[in-house]
């Protein structure tokens, strides 16, 4: 063996012995670590005793296996069984203590509101659509929820006024670039340590649910009598992150129930009025029948008077012919004339009595008719006010979604008949959520009022603007071609951009985006709205603060 080969052999020997020594050292460390882990598991299992009967049994089995030096497979089986139990306990504990998310909050509201009969199929369909939503998508459904509530409030309520339960959804919501992630909040680090209970940083667990409830309150369109309660609830939801979401839901359902009671009361008042109207009409009918009877009686009495007078006249003629002496004739004629006078007087007295009775009945009937006219005018005014309220957005004062549904069908029918140009515009406030988050909901409400006022004040009387829901508005422009509609939209967009909005001394930038679509042959309202909505999407994607015509590549 050469020196080189001997040196290589020695090198390999040293490497072998070093590897054996390292393996033995690792084995000793592993054995020590295993012993430490066994002791740790045993102590932790003792600390967890008493939480759950199944877990206690599994922990005892695990301690026995560790004490008996059971093999790795047995330990693995015991630990996996215990882990499954711990997962179950964590799930149960989380379910019992967690704050429901936005979608679940809406589902709870659905389940706690009782609707009139005949809505089961619609509610079932809405519930399925809600089940398909994620929490981040729930905000877009609020306007449709409010539309459903307002539609159901318009239905005549049942006789019982029990608190409403349930409130299903009509969701065909859409998500725009502004809808989520608008504020630029970074995603949480999954490796970051869990915050301590007393820590105040970060959004409250129920913040999303509060936001959803605030939008729902804003769009419900409850009567003015509820304004104070709504304002108090809005303030609690805005200022108190610990506000109980379920309690707020119950309060909303209570207000809806009271609204139904009020509707029932108004329904009863209308029924009472109709009953009074029926009674008054019966009075009129009785008067007419009485007048006819009196007319017939007067006719009969007049005929009887005529017959009596004629009989007396014929008697006079006969007496004249048969009279032998003038004095006897005078007496006979005078007696017959007296009889005629008596008949005439009786007839006159009867006529006077009839006229007096008729005058009294006429005066009574006229007074009742005047009362009825007053009640009719009052009822007509109340109906007008209630209809106006039902068709007006409570926050902005412009027409609401219900008014939009009525008007768009009217304009669509007119367009189909006369084929005059008709355009549909969908507007959406840019970066609205950051405004709400930074300045508060009062600032957001003021923004919506300002924008609604600018849009309503700068269109023709023949055009129409409505708040479609949330920060979205819908508009109809009649009798204008593509160029004119685009110029109108651009003028409105520029007016809003230049409005110079201030809130508590701070300048707040406000812009709005618009999607435009024109009605063409074969169109439906839904198809045109979808095209306008897609154009609005493109306006958002292209940087916002612009108007995009459906089918065009770029906006104005």
What is the CATH superfamily label of one domain?
Answer: Reverse transcriptase/Diguanylate cyclase domain
Structural class comes to: alpha+beta
Rg over CA atoms, rounded to whole Å, is: 44 Å
Uncertain stretches of 5 or more adjacent residues: 156-174, 180-205, 552-556
Helix and strand sequence:
HHHHHHHHHHHEHHEEHEEEHE
Question: Any idea what the CATH architecture of one domain is?
Answer: 2-Layer Sandwich
Overall spatial form:
elongated
Q: How many angstroms does the end-to-end distance come to?
A: 92 Å
Average residue-wise pLDDT: 76
Mind telling me the CATH class of one domain?
Answer: Alpha Beta
- The amount of beta strand, in percent, is 5-15%
Major sheet: 5 strands, mixed
- Number of extended strands: 7
Number of helices, where a helix is a run of at least 4 consecutive DSSP H or I residues: 15
> How are the strands of the largest sheet arranged?
2-3-1-6-7
Instruction: Indicate the percent of residues in helices.
Output: 55-70%
Indicate the CATH topology of one domain: Alpha-Beta Plaits
Question: How would you characterize the overall build of this protein?
Answer:
The strands form 2 sheets. Strands 2-3-1-6-7 form a 5-stranded mixed sheet, with helices on both faces. The chain contains 15 helices and 7 strands. It has helices at residues 3-47, 53-67, 72-97, 102-111, 120-131, 142-153, 207-219, 227-239, 245-322, 326-390, 401-418, 432-439, 441-457, 482-497, 525-541, and strands at 422-429, 464-469, 472-478, 502-503, 506-507, 512-518, 547-549. Among the domains are: 3-97; 289-390; 401-549, Reverse transcriptase/Diguanylate cyclase domain (Alpha-Beta Plaits, 2-Layer Sandwich), CATH 3.30.70.270.
């Amino acid at each position: 063996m050469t020196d080189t080969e001997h040196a290589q052999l020695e090198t390999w020997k040293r490497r072998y012995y070093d590897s054996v020594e390292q393996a033995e050292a690792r084995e000793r460390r592993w054995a020590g670590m295993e012993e430490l882990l066994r002791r740790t598991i045993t102590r932790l299992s003792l600390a967890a005793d008493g939480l759950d009967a199944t877990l206690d049994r599994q922990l005892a089995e695990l301690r026995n296996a560790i004490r008996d030096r059971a093999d790795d497979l047995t330990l693995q089986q015991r630990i996996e069984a215990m882990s499954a139990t711990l997962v179950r306990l964590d799930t149960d504990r989380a379910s019992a203590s967690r704050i429901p998310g936005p979608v679940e909050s809406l589902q709870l509201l659905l389940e706690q509101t009782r609707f009139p009969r005949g809505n089961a199929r619609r509610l079932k369909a809405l519930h399925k659509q809600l089940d398909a939503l994620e929490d981040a998508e729930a905000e877009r459904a609020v306007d449709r929820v409010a539309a459903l509530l307002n539609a159901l409030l318009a239905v005549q309520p049942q006789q019982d006024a029990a608190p409403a339960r349930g409130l299903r959804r009509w969701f065909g919501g859409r998500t725009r670039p502004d809808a989520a992630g608008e504020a630029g909040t970074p995603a949480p680090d999954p490796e970051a340590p869990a915050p301590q209970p007393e820590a105040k940083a970060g959004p409250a667990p129920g913040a999303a649910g509060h936001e959803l409830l605030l939008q729902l309150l804003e769009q419900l369109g409850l009567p003015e009598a509820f304004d104070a309660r709504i304002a108090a609830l809005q303030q609690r939801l805005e200022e108190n992150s610990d506000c109980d979401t379920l309690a707020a839901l119950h309060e909303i359902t209570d207000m809806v129930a009271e609204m139904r009671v009020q509707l029932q009361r108004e329904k009863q008042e209308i029924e009472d009025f109709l009953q009074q109207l029926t009674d008054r009409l019966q009075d009129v009918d009785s008067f007419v029948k009485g007048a006819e009877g009196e007319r017939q009686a007067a006719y009969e009495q007049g005929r009887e008077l005529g017959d009596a007078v004629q009989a007396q006249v014929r008697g006079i003629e006969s007496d004249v012919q048969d009279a032998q002496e003038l004095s006897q004739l005078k007496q006979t004629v005078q007696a017959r004339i007296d009889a005629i006078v008596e008949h005439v007087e009786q007839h006159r007295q009867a006529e006077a009595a009839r006229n007096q009775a008729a005058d009294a009945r006429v005066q009574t009937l006229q007074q009742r008719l005047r009362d009825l006219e007053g009640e009719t005018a009052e009822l007509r005014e109340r109906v007008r006010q209630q209809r106006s309220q039902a068709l007006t957005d409570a926050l902005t004062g412009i027409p609401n979604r219900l008014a939009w549904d009525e008007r768009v069908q009217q304009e669509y029918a007119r367009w189909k008949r006369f084929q005059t140009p008709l355009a549909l515009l969908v507007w959406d406030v840019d970066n609205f959520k950051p405004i709400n988050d930074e300045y508060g909901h009062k600032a957001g409400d003021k923004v919506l009022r300002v924008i609604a006022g600018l849009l309503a004040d700068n269109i023709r009387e023949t055009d129409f603007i409505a708040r479609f829901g949330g920060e979205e508005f819908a508009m109809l422009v009649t009798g204008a071609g593509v160029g004119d509609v685009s110029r109108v939209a651009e003028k409105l967009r520029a007016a809003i951009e230049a409005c110079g909005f201030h809130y508590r001394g701070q300048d707040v930038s406000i812009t709005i985006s618009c999607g435009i679509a024109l009605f063409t042959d074969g169109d439906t309202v839904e198809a045109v709205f979808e095209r306008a909505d897609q154009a609005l999407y493109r306006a958002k994607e292209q940087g916002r603060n612009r108007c995009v015509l459906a089918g065009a590549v770029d906006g104005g």
